[in-house]
Amino acid sequence: MTRYQHLATLLAQRIEQGLYQGGERLPSVRSLSAEHGVSISTVQQAYHLLEEKQLITPQPRSGYFVTPCKSKPPVPPITRPAQRPVEVTQWESVLELINSRLDEDTLQLGSGTPDTSQPTIKPLWKIISRLAQKQDPRMLNYDNIYGVPALREQVARMAIDSGCQLSPDDIVITTGCHEALSVSIRAVCQPGDIIAVESPTFHGTMQTLRGFGIKVIEIPTDSVTGISLEALELALEQWPIKAVIVVPNCNNPLGFIMPDARKRALLSMAQCFDIAIIEDDVYGELAYEYPRPLSIKSMDEDGRVLLCSSVSKVLAPGLRVGWVAPGRYLNRVLHLKYIGTGSTATQTQLAVAEFIRQGHYQPHLRKMRMHYQRNLDIFTHWVRHYFPCGICVSRPQGGFMMWIELPEAFDAMRLNRELRESHIQISVGSLFSASGKYRNCLRLNYSLAVTAQTERALAIVGAAVERAMVCCPPSASVAEVEGGASLKG
Prior knowledge:
The protein has 16 helices and 16 strands. The chain is of the alpha/beta class and 489 residues long. It folds into 3 domains: 3-66, Arc Repressor Mutant, subunit A; 93-116 and 363-481, Aspartate Aminotransferase, domain 1 (Alpha-Beta Complex), CATH 3.90.1150.10; 119-361, Type I PLP-dependent aspartate aminotransferase-like (Major domain) (Aspartate Aminotransferase, domain 2). 47% of the residues are buried. This is GntR family transcriptional regulator. GO terms for molecular function: DNA binding; DNA-binding transcription factor activity; pyridoxal phosphate binding; transaminase activity.
């Protein structure tokens, strides 16, 4: 962390703790320079960073003042889904969200796409270019069903940070984390079986279960500590559940990191009831605190945890490079991989392996963690500023997803339809439930560039939410109330 970032963090903490109140004038640049023994330019950079986060406001010839703000909204309470096996629905809504990505004029506030514009990713482009210029025959041929050995070696080394002791032979490279989850689910379940999931949970996982004819039982989940172990145990006693799927680190969409003690308790429960744990760790590397959190796989001694991950959220989703460490299910996963997609594309595997080997991966990770944490501060401020009172907002500990819960009667589906007139797309909460629950919730992606356009989009969403909460006439659209305001043009 640079000097100006350290100073900005210190000042932000003082504001958060109430040492500097809203509307209060902050110390002058010169006095802070003398107090902390740093240059005037360092103080100016720190103040500029706080201004970007909208924690402070400059006033001509008067200095900097703490921005008055609303009190923090509470975090969402523990969810209360119907705790019985159900068939997954919502495919049409998921398909609509996927298709909306093709509209370049629409600002995707709810997508699951990371920021791929940072300069730390440039070495990857150079590596891809060099591999193409070398005309290596390996890139045009089938590879080992396990995946490129060089990449599996690097993945095994990276797994050490999460507490895992894996060898390259423990790892199977897949076409993204989506395939890793797909082969893991089929390795432990048959059509008609029941799987327990966190609620809410990633819609891609839900639709995979739907496609395989597997029923889902949604387990209440806390936005701070994760899946309710008490509710899960009751479900395991009542239903013939074959596995549980969890995203314990930087959860999508709630953002929590499950405490280690609860991870161990979950593993003990899985051993007691003899079920598998499918662990989605695709966001784990993006935890804001260092060292990154342990995986449940790191605690697994009998091979019942299938660890799934990828570079889709850390580097770029278009690379389609993921992996699974399936433990005791290795042979089954290999067979399913073979009859499904066969080997994974070679060029991107080689490129990712070389990117990591050359030492570019860790600097990129550090950059993205700082970038997303900074964006979280800014987006949280925007939500507090533009959205009405009476909402709950998650406090992510990593990744780039934010979950917002509105009053029970709110219809986010209708909100999304209205927002299309302003060329804005959100992810409606019902996508993250097997039965269509959470219609009053939405997921926001804060990896987006911090620009006036993005802030204006949040303002439009917030205004639409406020109107709906005071029962504005159903005929009033977002574009009408905003005076035809649109992000297009």
